[in-house]
Amino acid sequence: MIHGIRRRTALALPATAVALSAALLTGGAQASAPAGLAAAPDIPVASVQQDLKELQAVADANGGNRAHGQPGYQASITFVKQKLDAAGYETRVQEFTHGGATGYNLIADWPGGDANQVLMAGSHLDSVRAGPGINDNGSGSAGVLEVALAVAANDLKPGKHLRFAWWGAEELGLIGSTHYVETLPDGETEKISGYLNFDMIGSPNPGYFVYDDDPALMAPLTGFFKGKGVETEGIVINGRSDHAAFQRAGVATGGLFTGAEGTKTQEQARKWGGTAGQPYDRCYHRACDTTANIDATALDRNTDAIAHAIWELSGA
Fold first, then answer.
1. 63: how many CB neighbours lie within 10 A of its CB?
2. Is residue 170 among the annotated active site residues?
3. Exposed, middle or buried, 3 (CB in 10 Å: 0-12/13-18/19+)?
4. Intra-chain end-to-end CA distance of the chain, in Å
5. Catalytic residue (choose from 54, 95, 170, 312)
6. What is the pLDDT of residues 40-56, one digit of tens each?
């Protein structure tokens, strides 16, 4: 994740607003019978943590990082792709060039759903060169991966077409996601009904931030946490992560974030626990961003929130 965010006040949407916003995105048929929607499964946090251990092992075997242009990044792509291929996804690796090095995006489509209404979820898979990038952004990458695998395990039949993505070279300026959006064929951007971004979801001194971009995409995420008794804060992440490329193209965006180098306030510590006056992630962009740099509760809650949003917004 790159720098620069703006925070808004705490948000807790009422149930009627959550239902209305979901209805706007999923269509009238689903809105008339929300009780008939399939419930999202609980995603075992142990599975997400195992993915993080695998990404740590990749970094350890490849000079300590998973950065663009480095062997650790290509090994990360291979790890994620193999799991998706085995689960029945249609995957493709998109190449691009930046800084004289080849970069890669991994795109995975779940067969079925309305091809004219595509719901996307993504995360960046690269780290900085300084470290293995387990919170930034192994956490988001692993969370999205386990939700995608849960889609397959449950043989989900969504009304919308589901597409998952893992982006390259985000740490160098959102290069991979920008390349993807700018090279979409004519008319394909308009088919994307929403893009959800997950960049850092397991910070060790976590906050619970929901992108304050599009109400319909924000609602199921905020609603999930409200149902768990967890307050959230809306946040505007101007150009800081991969959703920015989609925003520029006119696509509705949303997402989750547990905090980076910013400092947790006294009020936030009161409602979320943790330590006031300290960064959300003390190892942000440092060598110590390892598997020890993860809050398991935040990782668990945020991964389940991703699943909830995918199930609800896709009209499953």
1. 13
2. yes
3. exposed
4. 31
5. 170
6. 999 999 999 999 999 99
